[in-house]
Specification:
The protein is α/β, with parallel strands linked by helices and 374 residues long. It has 14 helices and ten strands.
């Protein structure tokens, strides 16, 4: 950074010294120096903005400007028959000379990524199957489950990690908050793990959208440009992307769809972790974090018991299973009674009434249960 600062100071001093000697304005020396300093300041500001631009975009802008100049000269030469002393013809020549290079700069800078060596080589290759891009966002990287999903081979196509996502992840890893810092470092470790997978293609994209500040909106625009899908577990990003017509792969929805289906009447083993909100209730959790509310299980805390499922409650926050504790002997007798293909036998009305009452009380008191994730 010191060399950049020194070069800028020398550049401003050289421009000011030149203006003081040559005096481009018919005014005093001080006025010419101030004019030169202002002009040099604008150039330094322009240079600082150029340093944030990708090299391919700069090359594209330069190439587009050159092509625009050549076309402008060709059009001007084609108008040799026009009267060059006519002010309208002179204005037309000047307008063409300004407009075509300007359009060349804009178009070349916008499509500068085509100057990347990988894309230039791809122009001369035989057209193969179209690449499918899967764009990762910050939340799904920090979550970590995407590495296991990729390891199983369920994610196809090319994983794209945008540079602005890496910058956001680095800011989280450098945070003063220890919790955020650990989450950011975990995300970086997950990326290293994904990049080391042999059967997976991972690329880091330099495409950026300086006019957009929000990372979520940048992800949506990148997905549109690459015609890919966003991999996330952010609920809000999922909804916004769908509203804008971008496909999303939600890891949370995948995890919920893979949870085992439990039907009323089935017998299962659970570990009672704590007591419930209602009288004589126990609470257990499955391996996937699903909450199980068990009636008549308050005395069975810290024990693994057999329960019979009475009902399953599905909410937007997750799934809750309601069950009733049964004795080991009753479980052994109840299991063989169900014939293959026959519907499960419902518990006796008299014994099921307390479970049903507790279930209704739980539904009344917990309108939107939020199962804890393990």
């Amino acid at each position: 950074m010191a060399w950049f600062a020194l070069a800028r100071v020398l550049f401003v001093a050289a421009v000011a010294y030149t203006a003081a000697l040559l005096r481009p304005l018919p005014l005093g020396v001080a006025t010419n120096i101030v004019f030169a300093l202002g002009l040099a300041g604008l150039l330094v500001l322009f240079e600082s903005r150029l340093r944030e631009t990708a090299v391919t975009r700069l090359l594209g802008a330069l190439l587009g400007c050159t092509v625009g100049l050549f076309i402008a000269r060709a059009v001007g030469a084609g108008l040799f028959w026009a009267d060059s002393t006519d002010p309208r013809v002179q204005f037309l020549h000047t307008f063409i000379l300004i407009t075509l290079p300007y359009l060349g700069v804009l178009v070349g800078a916008k499509h500068g990524e085509w100057l990347e060596p990988r894309r230039l080589v791809g122009l001369f290759r035989t057209a193969g199957p179209e690449r499918r891009y899967r764009i990762l966002d910050t939340s799904v990287i920090i979550d970590g489950r995407i590495a296991d999903v990729c390891d199983t081979g369920f994610i196809d196509g090319t994983l794209v990690i945008p540079q602005f996502v890496l910058r956001e992840l680095q800011l989280v890893a450098d945070s003063s908050d220890s919790l955020k810092r650990n989450r950011g470092r975990r995300g970086l470790d997950i990326l290293q793990k994904i990049q080391k997978m042999a059967d997976l293609e991972v690329i880091v994209s330099d495409m950026d959208f300086p006019d957009i500040r929000e990372v979520d909106l940048k992800l949506i625009e990148l997905a549109r440009a690459l015609q890919g899908k966003i991999v996330t577990n952010d609920f809000n990003l999922n909804k916004v992307a769908q509203l804008r017509g971008v496909s999303v792969l939600n890891v949370n929805e995948l995890a919920n769809s893979l949870k085992p289906v439990v039907l009323p009447g089935e017998i299962m083993k659970v570990f009672i972790l704590k007591e419930g909100k209602e009288f004589n209730q126990g609470v257990a959790y499955l391996d996937d974090g699903t909450m199980v509310v068990v009636d008549n299980a308050r005395k069975m805390i810290s024990k693994t018991i057999d329960i019979v499922v009475t009902s399953v409650l599905q909410t937007t926050a997750g799934k809750m299973i309601f069950g009733r504790h049964i004795e080991p002997g009753v479980a052994a007798q109840a299991q063989p009674q169900a014939a293959p293909g026959a519907p499960a036998a419902s518990p006796q009305p008299g014994a099921a009434q307390p479970a049903e009452r507790s279930e209704e009380n739980a539904r009344t008191r917990v309108r939107t249960p939020q199962p804890q994730q393990t």
